[in-house]
Structures are given as structure tokens and as C-alpha cells.
């Protein structure tokens, strides 16, 4: 179970140390004060204010990125006979009345604020959920990435030549996929909210698997683009849907470690997929078909099996695990009460269906208007572009260098392993030194000399030297996980954190569209013009990171000045009465 109870360092991006001294000692008084707010404040406003205050307290110990939880596991020793029931608003009758579960909440019949249990009862349940929910989510993500990225392996088997396509058609295919994926994000979440992720996610998987397997019968450019669009439409929204589903079973302090495993499954796919392709592409000529056709068909059938299995393994909630093929369910009534009450004590808002609220255009617009997050959104639009085209064209490049189909797939593996290791190291370092923008500059300085070399390297250079250059470039430490945590930390409110993360993800998807259109047919085979553009973008990214750093430092200094000018009484009055939320509070400091 992931926990951060041993972490006491006040991070940048939460309330300042000055404010924390007051807040920590008066947390109970603040929550009580919320309940006795002015008569003009309605119950929903009071309720939301309490939730925001609780979130601030949790943020002081919660992990700031998902991947950081891999090395920040709970080091405290729990006595199994101790009571595991955690303090919450339900222990105070004056506060509890604002958080009674909704009549529509499916687990309401197991809610009991007086219920108590021990660690010996809770910990085995968490491990059981890990095997049935976390393990499933990793396998599901493997299925997603396998079907969306196997086009790269198909290219090593003369896919473009066999289909009568060229570089521009390949770019269009990637562009169409990303646009469709992006457009499907919101509709997918609305459907998931309406019918439940336990029904919608398996349906998504089955539908995109059928389309992916159907690429066996591709005939030309039109069918190629149509399949890429359909796969994008059917896969869009899958990732936030799965994260939402996992939140039904895990507490806020437990979820980051599970999400770290979830994202690691994505990187693992990039290692496994070339190995699968190494074998499947050897079927070229079997029954007169190309190897890439068998690759699409068999991998599509594999993910179809995973999708069908998901229908039988997924459950709507901890109290709805019984089915005709699972007559006894996963848990006893006593175990269901533990699971429901531990989740609600950690986050009471989950009982009013708030955790199932789909991201709407209105919420996205409100998040977009939060100008303090614009620097991170700007970074999301461009930070990985210098590595994007070389990555998309890796297998094609290896073929052009003279490596055969099978060697090209195997040679694509080393950079996937090293970039994963470097990504973990970068995320670890960012947490240790509490820096993000400067580490982003470091990443761009890693990429810049590599893309400069690609732009000027002589045409007759040894293929192994060219391969070494591309491998070094693609081994860069991706700052994406670090920046997801950065965006979350600088949002710092219950309502906006998920929305801002989704908006950041949209900027990254838009970046992918740009990636797909830099290398063009008239620029092959060295793509000199495209690589010069990558040099310019990498240089621009350095400036963007430095401007973001400067902006947040400037904002923090202004708040330090305003906060320092207040008396102790004024600070206390502000903390107790302010309507400012999250990053708009004077005692909030931005991470940079």
C-alpha cells in the first residue's frame, strides 16, 4: 500500500511554511469553522470549502508524481492488530451532515461511519484488489499500446511499399489517428459515466481490436486512413476511463503507485512489441500474405481476447462483484464495509458521484482560463517534438540504413529500455532537488546536439554510427511524468486538478500531430530540412522552460511580499475567511 506518512518536507506548490505553521495547528478549528459559516453560504458551498481544506492537508504528504511512488513506498511498520480506521469528517456530527452519501451512490448500503477495522483486515484486501484491478489495468494498457503502435513494426516489413504509400501518407495516417484520439476524449468519458467503465472499457477494447485485426485486409490509402481514424476514435478516452475506474478501489495515497505501474506497462509494451514482431513477421509468404498482415491480425486477436476477458473480470464497484460466472463475488459483507468506508473516509466526495463527473467543455474552458498554468500548457505543446519524428521513423530509418526486417525490430529495443530508465532517474531527481523547469532545459540540451548532428551528418556515414546517434537521441529522459505532477501540483484544488491534467494531455496530443508532419516525402532520405526544424524547436524549448521558471519565481516573490506585509492577525483572518481556492490563495507557492 502506497503511503507517504513518513514524508514531512513541505513541498513547493502547497501552502507556504509560514502558513503551514498556523494551518497545521488549527486544522480541526478550520474545518469546524467551515461548518459554522455565514447563513448566506449554502450547504454545497460549505461542503466544497471543507473538501478544499482537506485536500490542502492531504497535499502536504501526498506524492507529487505517480512515478515518484516507485521509490517512496511506505516505510512505516504497522501493527496488524491496530485500528486502521482513519480520522475523517464523519467523526464530527457538525461536519458529517454535509457529507452523507447520495441516494444514488451504489455503495451506500455498506456505509457506516461508526464501523472500525484493523490493518490485519485491510492490507490483505488491498493486495487482493491489486491482483484483480491493478494487474488488469496494466494488461489493458498493454493491449492499447500494442494496437496503436504496431504500425511501426509493420514498416520494417515493407508495409508502405506493399500498400503503395509514401512518407506523406504515413504522416497523414499518424495525424488522422491523433486527431481522432483527441476528439474522442470527452465523448468517451461521457459514455463511461453514463453506462459505467466496467461496460464501456471492454466494449472499447473489443471494437478497436476488431478494427486493428481488420487491417489484415487493407487495400490502399483510403482503407489505411479509415482504419487509423477508427482506432483513434475507439481508443480515445481509454486512459482517463481506466484511471477513474481504479479510483473506485484505492485511496488517494494508494493510487499513485498503481498509476506508476500502469504507465510502466506502456513502456514495457515498447520492449515486447518488437519481440513479437520479430516472430510474427516471419510469416511473410504464408498463404501468400505479407508478414505485416499477419502482425495486425494476430496482435488484434490477442487484444480482442484481452477485451473479452475484461468483460468478465471488471466489476462496477467494490459492492457489486457478483455475477452469473462469479456467484460468490470477490468479498464478504464485512470486507465490503471495510472497502467502502476506507475510501469515503479518505475522500468523502466520492459518495456524491463527483469522482464520476466527466470532464466537460465548461470545465476545460475554466481550466484554460487559469493563466498560471499556461506556461505548463505551452511546454506540453512542444517539449518532445525534437524526439518525435526520429522516434516515429525509427524502424523506417533502420531499414534505410540497410538493416533487415528482423534486425530493425531488435535494434529498436535498446533505446526503449534506456529511455525508461532515464525517465525514472529524471523523475527521481526532480523530487529530490524540487526542480522541474531546469531539468526540462537539461532534456532539451540532451536532444539539441543530437538533432544538430542529424541535420549535418554526412550521407556516407557508417550505418552503425547513424544507429548509435539515433539511439542516444531516443534514450533521452522523458520529462512527461514530471510535468504531469507539475501541472497537478500547480492546480492544487479538488475540482481543477483532474481537468488541468486532461488539458495538459490534450496539448501533448496536439504535439503529436505536429510530430507527424515534420518529416516529408520531398525531404527524404536524410530529412535535412525536418531536422533543422527540430534544431529550432529544441532551442525554442530551452527558452520556454526558462520563461516558465522565471514566471513562477516572479509570482512567488510577489506573494511572498504580499504575505510578508500582513500581520499575524491578518494572516489568521485570511486563512479562516478567504474564498480564494488552490493556486489563487496568497499562501500558495508555485512549483517551478
TrEMBL record:
Stretches for region Disordered: 1-46
Spans traversing the lipid bilayer: 225-248, 260-281, 293-315, 410-430, 437-457, 534-554
Pfam families, A to Z: MFS_1
Listed GO MF terms: transmembrane transporter activity
Signal sequence residues: none
Membrane topology of the entry: Multi-pass membrane protein
UniProt entry keywords in alphabetical sequence: Membrane, Transmembrane, Transmembrane helix, Transport
Keyword Transmembrane applies: yes
Top-rank lineage group of the source organism: Eukaryota
GO cellular component assignments: membrane
InterPro entries: MFS (IPR011701), MFS_trans_sf (IPR036259)
Subcellular location: Membrane
SUPFAM superfamilies per record: MFS general substrate transporter
PANTHER family reported for this sequence: MAJOR FACILITATOR SUPERFAMILY (MFS) PROFILE DOMAIN-CONTAINING PROTEIN-RELATED (PTHR43791:SF65), PERMEASE-RELATED (PTHR43791)
Protein name in the entry: Major facilitator superfamily domain-containing protein
